[in-house]
Design a protein that fits this description.
The protein has helices spanning 63-66, 76-81, 151-157, and strands at residues 2-5, 8-11, 18-19, 32-39, 42-50, 57-61, 91-97, 106-116, 121-124, 136-137. It is mainly beta. The longest helix is centred in the C-terminal third of the chain and has 7 residues, at 151-157.
């Protein structure tokens, strides 16, 4: 099968689809998506592309890349919906809002997408009673901050 996206023509198999039975917040009728690489050399940011509406896609990032101590707590109902006993079996992604001024880019850590990689079934959850917000500036995370001139690495390399 093929779809035309804003990023070009994409070929896929039915087995490539991620299914969100309840859709995503604001898009309840769109339930079938593909997870695509935005840049083949960098898998830190991905595109969740709807196959039902080609103009709908979401830039995703693994929240653990931004916040190594990210600790989403799912309810027993959410775990059951994803057909797992332990949340460690799941993959997590956060939606990024990408603006023309990169300084305004944000990430939603409060409502991650949670996917069971075995069944390719996912849900979007709201992490109740968590310290995470809906709009964290991407540049506020050390892993995304402005690159340095490399002097720290030079000092580390010369100490051997």
């Amino acid at each position: 099968m093929t779809i035309q996206t804003d990023y070009g023509m994409v070929e896929y198999e039915k087995s490539d689809l991620l299914i969100f039975p309840d859709g995503l917040f604001g898009f309840p009728k769109l339930t079938q998506y593909l997870l695509l690489y935005l840049n083949e050399d960098d898998d830190s940011m991905l595109l969740l592309q709807s196959v039902e509406e080609c103009k709908v896609g979401f830039v995703l990032i693994n929240p653990f890349l931004l916040c190594p101590d990210y600790s989403p707590e799912l309810t027993p109902e959410e775990l059951a919906c994803l057909e797992v006993q332990d949340s460690g079996e799941l993959s997590y992604y956060s939606i990024c809002v990408v603006r023309s001024n990169y300084l305004e880019n944000t990430v939603n850590l409060k409502s991650p997408l949670v996917i069971n990689p075995q069944t390719r079934r996912g849900i979007q959850v709201i992490l109740e009673n968590s310290p995470y917000g809906y709009r964290h500036e991407l540049r506020s995370f050390p892993t995304v901050a402005e690159p340095t001139n490399g002097s720290e690495k030079e000092h580390a390399d010369t100490s051997t």
